[in-house]
Amino acid sequence: AQKVTQAQTEISVVEKEDVTLDCVYETRDTTYYLFWYKQPPSGELVFLIRRNSFDEQNEISGRYSWNFQKSTSSFNFTITASQVVDSAVYFCALRDLYNFNKFYFGSGTKLNVKP
Amino acid sequence: ETGVTQTPRHLVMGMTNKKSLKCEQHLGHNAMYWYKQSAKKPLELMFVYSLEERVENNSVPSRFSPECPNSSHLFLHLHTLQPEDSALYLCASSQDTGTGEDEKLFFGSGTQLSVL
């Protein structure tokens, strides 16, 4: 069965610190998709990134970077030089290859960035 | 208006009330979803509609009844709820391409439901 685990329930950092959010997943599929979403206080989950399981290249987008390691079934998310606006709940998700409509989410990590 | 819109933003209801949550998407998508978000739990998929046909029903109690009259609108009808049903109910949409390549979810801001 598919499962996503985000072991960190809540993290607090001071502005400008780097922070890594962990995501570990379980799947028997060889092809799958991984996602990160951000949920600010307004409630709407905002898409950040999608990664195909065949593409193990790490990705950087501004202060955000993602480390995909198939060997450890992890897809970690790092924010460099965190800012107060990064405060949100971050969700990791896994999607089946064939069940297009089935997204499996973790329980989320709440990030508090203090000034 | 763009994106996915949910109304109301907040709802307080008694256990004997009947209410409905509304979701509207302006993205031209053909799949719509209801998710339940409870504190410290994974997002729970409740229902999925693709081309107005229900394709997923995740063992949700019958006191939750979805309705999808067209590809832009999705409702969740509520009746005789329990206090443990209090949660944030999120609507989402996606473009079901049939290949899965570009599938991703676009979410609304949710309805915060409190059942007294």
Keywords:
heterodimer; A: 115 residues; mainly beta; 6-stranded mixed sheet; globular; B: 116 residues; 7-stranded mixed sheet; 4-stranded antiparallel sheet; 11 strands
Task: Give the averaged pLDDT of chain B, no decimals.
Answer: 90
Uncertain stretches of 5 or more adjacent residues of chain B: none
Low-confidence segments of chain A, given as residue ranges, are none
This entry's quaternary arrangement is heterodimer
What is the residue-averaged pLDDT of chain A? 92
Largest interface: A-B, 27 and 31 residues
Global shape of chain B: globular
SSE order of chain A in H/E notation?
A: EEEEEEEEEEEE
Percentage beta strand of chain A = over 45%
The total of beta strands of chain A comes to 12
Relative helix content of chain A: under 10%
Number of helices of chain B: 0
**What characterizes the major β-sheet of chain B?**
7 strands, mixed
| Secondary structure category of chain B | mainly beta
User: Span from first to last CA of chain B?
Assistant: 33 Å
Number of continuous helical runs of chain A: 0
Alpha carbon gyration radius of chain B: 14 Å
